[in-house]
Amino acid sequence: MSEKLWGGRFTSSQSDDLEKLNLSIHIDKELYAEDIKGSKAYAKSLASINLLNQEEYASICDGLDKVKLEWDSGTFLIKKGDEDIHTANERRLKEIIGDPATKLHVGRSRNDQVVTDMKLWLRSKLHDLSNLIVELITAMINRSATEIDVVMPGYTHLQRAQPVRWSHWLLSHAWALKHDADRMQTIKRDVDVMPLGSGALAGNPFQIDRNALAESLGFTSVTQNSMHAVADRDFVVNFLFWCSLVGVHLSRLAEDLIIFGTKEFEYVTIHDAFSTGSSLMPQKRNPDSLELIRGIGGSLFGQCCSFMLTLKGLPSTYNKDLQSDKETMFSTFEKLRSILKVATGTITSLKLNDDKCKNGLSFEMLATDVAYYLVKKKVPFRKAHHIAGQVVATAENKQKSIADMTVDELKSISQEFDSDIGKIWNYEHSVEQYQVTGGTSKDSVLHQIQILSLWIKEQ
Ligand code: ARG
Question: Domains along the chain?
């Protein structure tokens, strides 16, 4: 009781089991620097309205710096009764500077304190994640530029569809990540609004200058409703959802590469550094890097769902259910950070087997080009599609490739065929037809590289 900051009205001690369950210091100590930063700024506000004199203010700042040094150097001693980072820092501050420490919390509550700390923390971590995404996209751009001449099968329904440039495939994943990076702006907007000064739920009764406080902490505005401010974890949900979506994108990239890396495809070879072996089968090289990305990608969404379920049933303002927000936010950040790093390493180091990509192509993948050939001879597309289908079926019956059909055989299907059909049996020619913006021709892919590179420069 007496050892607790809130122990005044209690006459019996807390159950050991509840005390254990209620503790969050082992998790929220991650916020020690933000908590101290917030406290120093808050002390300044209190000094400017004479709730602290200059001496007390200086002593609090000095004491908080000392507490921070202890955390920085790993010498901070967590004691029984240190429920969370806020109470631990305040307890230690009092041990170091004595009485002035007891004036710091006036008008403030852990309810506005914790959410301010979390926003400060998330702001710097968003920066880290955005750098990691930029690194991954840069790795993709670099490969796309140097390997632009490699043509491989493109798939729909995992069935061979049309030839595409390897770079076009790789950039398809880069674009998804670029849009993720753009969408991060909405989280940045959320975390830029300062909740401090909302008290437990009703606001701050001492006329502190919240705008000045926000400015000193680097926020651009302040929350407009204290009850909303202490209850609001939408910025956490936004962040968790955002991470889940990046996880989905990384997972799809991983899934493609797992398939491309099998012996059946072998378009790529995952580097030893990003593979693992089997304890039983000596020949195995497994793409665990990619499987972990795929697995963790799914668990991110699990964490997002679970936190939304926590929020759903809560009445207004702060409820202790919210304490789990930090564990989810920290672990989601750490998971995404790790898989982004592994994705960049895997993409940078993998070997592209251009001969296998070429072998994966077959002339049947040019059946669409046969239809387009006829369209250019003024055959309506539906009819041209039907004729091209007949060409495929006839070649199949004759057990030969469609490219080996003679002009006479083709003419027996449609009179529109001529000897110039020969020029379509060329994969390079096929991909070069797609000159449109967003297509797979060389110029279109170079254009994508140019736009993405410009975007990288702006980051
Ligand atoms: N450790 C708490 C949390 O992280 C801080 C807020 C506690 N507020 C309260 N009124 N019990 O959610």
Answer: 14-103 (1.10.275.10), 110-148+155-359 (1.20.200.10), 363-458 (1.10.40.30)
